[in-house]
Design goal:
392 residues, alpha/beta, Rossmann fold, 16 helices, 16 strands
């Protein structure tokens, strides 16, 4: 790997959900630990959610929020409503124009070699308009939908068309698409599209994996708390800990002796996942991938109207992650746990992802200019020319 201390980046992150944030943290730590410079992180904001504290603690450069399209939910804060989401995006079109100017001003201020985009649509829009000014690298699970060998669930052709077109919107003008997957796929004809293992945080690999007699739940939309409580009333003997973004929880709320709710805390959640006997979640890609690595069987309940999670749940079953349902029938997970087998193939595959990501990023970056070369300490033109030749 070539030393690239003078290379620099700006991140653009979709702030909806935990997965894009944790992927951004993984790439941020990967780059910084190797001498790259990350100037700033632009985050598409949502009034429904606050930016988690764990993200602010991990990112030690300016975090710049901006208005960006996001989903609308039903009054119970459970299901995704597609039509209102589209309508809201159209209503806020002027705000998004301001966001594009903010992105442009940030790029002009820092002059990065590339924008690394974690599924943020306005960053894709910006990249198409300013393709000649900065390289654009997209990272996310959703880019697997653009692979010709990816198998969508049967039916729901309209949802399939919408998610594919939205994914293309986020990747307009992209020089590379890093599609994170539950399992390997053959190379695509589109050479920009690379299938890679999930980008898990380094803390996942540091966990003490064991089993205690409790189930862990992760429900980002607070509306699902009542579903957890309703199931628990009929099964009070099962110890259950549930993480949620509900502002009513305020850190920790013990419902009774065997049910406890926790505010989002990534470190605490990961430690408890490493020691639980099973995970109940709403089919977000990142949480399922972490459970799969830690050897914890999962019951996935896709958020209503959320086609991406609908696909995730079925795709994760192929990878051996667990089972899915349309409701919180947690007793099904208890019945499945004795049948679950840890996937050692998955664990081996996932460990090579850092080298793959860095290699792709370096190949995409523009050649170093003479002025940049002259600013390097101990710079040797003959050695550097040979290294650049091997990269490009």
């Amino acid at each position: 790997m070539t030393r690239m201390e003078n290379r620099s980046f700006i991140f653009a992150v979709q702030g909806e959900g935990r997965g894009h944030l944790t992927q951004a943290i993984s790439v941020y730590e990967m780059l910084v630990s190797r001498g790259f410079k990350v100037h700033a992180v632009l985050v598409g904001s949502s009034k429904r959610r606050d930016l988690p504290e764990f993200f602010k603690k991990k990112i030690s450069v300016p975090i710049i929020p901006f208005q960006s399209p996001n989903f609308s939910t039903d009054p119970k804060n459970k299901s995704i409503r597609l039509a209102p989401s589209i309508w809201k995006s159209l209503r806020y079109i002027r705000r998004y124009a301001d966001s594009l100017r903010l992105i442009h001003n940030t790029v002009k201020t820092y002059k990065p070699d590339a924008i690394i985009n974690f599924y943020e649509p306005l960053a894709g829009w910006y990249a198409r308009k300013h393709k000649s000014e900065v390289r654009h690298i997209c990272i996310g699970h959703q880019y697997i939908y653009l692979h010709p060998r990816f198998e969508f669930p049967n039916g729901r052709w309209m949802d399939k068309m919408v998610i594919r077109n939205y994914t293309k919107l986020t990747s307009m003008g992209a020089d590379a698409l890093l599609a994170l997957s539950f399992y390997p796929l053959p190379p695509a004809e589109n050479q920009r599209l690379k299938v890679l293992p999930p980008l898990l945080r380094k803390e996942v690999f540091e966990q003490d994996i064991h089993q205690q007699p409790f189930l862990l739940a992760y429900v980002l939309n607070a509306g699902y708390m009542q579903d957890i409580i309703n199931w628990h009333k009929n099964h009070p003997e099962v110890e259950l800990h549930c993480f949620t973004d509900s502002k009513a929880v305020k850190g920790k709320w013990r419902y009774d002796d065997t049910l406890c709710f926790h505010s989002l805390d990534d470190k605490k959640f990961l430690t408890m996942m490493a020691s639980c006997k099973g995970l109940v979640c709403t089919a977000g890609f990142e949480s399922v991938c972490e459970a799969l690595y830690l050897g914890k069987p999962a019951l996935m309940i896709p958020v209503g109207g959320h086609y991406e999670q609908f696909c995730n749940a079925r795709d994760a079953v192929k990878a051996g992650a667990g089972i899915y349902d349309t409701e919180f029938n947690i007793e099904r997970l208890l019945e499945f746990i004795p049948q679950y087998k840890v996937s050692e193939d998955y664990r081996c595959w996932i460990k090579g992802v850092e080298q793959d990501v860095l290699s792709i990023i370096e190949k995409v970056l523009p050649p170093l200019t003479t002025s940049t070369l002259e600013g390097m300490e101990g710079f040797n033109i003959h050695n550097l020319n040979s290294k650049l030749h091997s990269i490009i």
